[in-house]
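In the design runs reported in the main text, the only information available to the sequence generator was the tokenized backbone. The following block is the verbatim input for one such run; it is reproduced so that readers can re-run the procedure and compare outputs position by position.
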């Protein structure tokens, strides 16, 4: 069975974009933002930094590189680290109370609550996604507050939309 990371690796989409005459001389990042408008310019720049954009068989890492009419931009659209972070990871949660709407967890010091740069996996959010299936349909997996990584204490987690909003 594939792991979460393996599943994401399978979701690379390859696109080839022809540079129209009207984009001759444009910066490559600006052209990509126009040609692939469903993604942000910063995401497309990150793809360039990762070597996922090629022109004439050469990886383009500089967003300011100029393109010519007729160029073919080969782009590998990959999941971002942030998108890959929101996956279930089984972990031992110290559950103090649980019912259909609410979960009270004792968060130990050292456990990061939300995925972020430097901590994309192994977070409380990842554990909650594995703990109950409904977490995936709730904002922030039901987390309504946070404690710093080095702080221990009780955390309330909503298990229903009504509980999260209350």
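Verbatim output:
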């Amino acid at each position: 069975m594939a792991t979460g990371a393996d599943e994401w690796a399978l979701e690379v989409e390859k696109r080839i974009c022809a540079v129209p005459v009207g984009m001759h001389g444009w910066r490559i990042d600006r052209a990509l933002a126009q040609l692939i408008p469903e993604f942000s310019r910063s995401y497309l720049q990150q793809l360039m930094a990762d070597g996922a954009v090629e022109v004439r068989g050469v990886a383009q890492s500089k967003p300011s590189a100029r393109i010519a009419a007729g160029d073919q931009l080969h782009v590998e659209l990959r999941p971002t680290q942030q998108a890959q972070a929101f996956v279930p990871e089984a972990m031992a949660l110290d559950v103090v109370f649980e019912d259909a709407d609410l979960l009270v967890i004792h968060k130990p010091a050292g456990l990061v609550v939300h995925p972020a740069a430097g901590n994309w996996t192994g977070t409380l959010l990842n554990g909650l996604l594995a703990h109950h299936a409904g977490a995936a349909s709730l904002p922030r997996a039901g987390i309504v507050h946070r404690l710093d990584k080095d702080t221990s204490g009780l955390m309330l987690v909503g298990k229903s939309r009504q509980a999260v909003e209350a």
